[in-house]
């Protein structure tokens, strides 16, 4: 085994671990905003590590892998932000525990809360 294969294997294991933890975070978190956070951060790092591992295992693909990594680094946060903003505007507000009622919702100043209409999804 060469050093490139060892580094590639390590990146594959790290990437698949982060992807698993991202999926677990999506399953376990209480509301859409926490799920977006867990999913976006973990899967971004997981996908980047996995693709970099493939680049190390197949050195002729390293430049293609780096281009895909750059695309993921730009597109994942933007898509996560768009989903969170659309969810907020749709009327799904952040989950706040009863003892944390003094927390401020900074986005409420821009988009005031409106009650969701019953019967509509």
Structural class: mainly alpha
Largest beta-sheet details: none
Given the structure, what is the number of helices? 3
Strand count: 0
Write a short abstract of this structure.
This protein has about 120 residues and is mainly alpha-helical. The chain has 3 helices and no strands.
Helix-strand blueprint:
Elements: H1 3-28, H2 32-57, H3 62-90
Helix pairs in contact: 1-2, 2-3
Task: Give your account of this protein's structure.
- The protein is mostly helical and 121 residues long.
- It contains 3 helices and no strands.
- The chain has helices spanning 3-28, 32-57, 62-90.
- Helix 1 (3-28) runs antiparallel to helix 2 (32-57) and helix 2 runs antiparallel to helix 3.
- The longest helix is centred in the middle third of the chain and has 29 residues, at 62-90.
- It is elongated and about 60 Å long.
- The N and C termini lie far apart (55 Å).
- The model has no long low-confidence stretch (mean pLDDT 84).
Question: What features would you highlight for this structure?
Answer:
121 residues; 0% strand; elongated
């Amino acid at each position: 085994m060469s050093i490139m294969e060892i580094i590639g294997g390590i990146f594959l294991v790290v990437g698949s671990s982060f992807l698993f933890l991202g999926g677990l975070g999506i399953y376990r978190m209480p509301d859409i905003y926490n799920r977006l956070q867990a999913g976006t951060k973990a899967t971004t790092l997981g996908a980047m590590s996995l693709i970099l591992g493939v680049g190390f295992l197949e050195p002729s693909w390293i430049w293609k892998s780096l281009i895909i990594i750059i695309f993921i680094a730009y597109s994942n946060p933007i898509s996560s932000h768009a989903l969170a903003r659309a969810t907020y505007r749709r009327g799904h507000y952040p989950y706040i525990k009863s003892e944390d009622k003094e927390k401020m919702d900074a986005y409420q100043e821009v988009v005031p809360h409106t009650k969701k209409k019953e019967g509509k999804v």
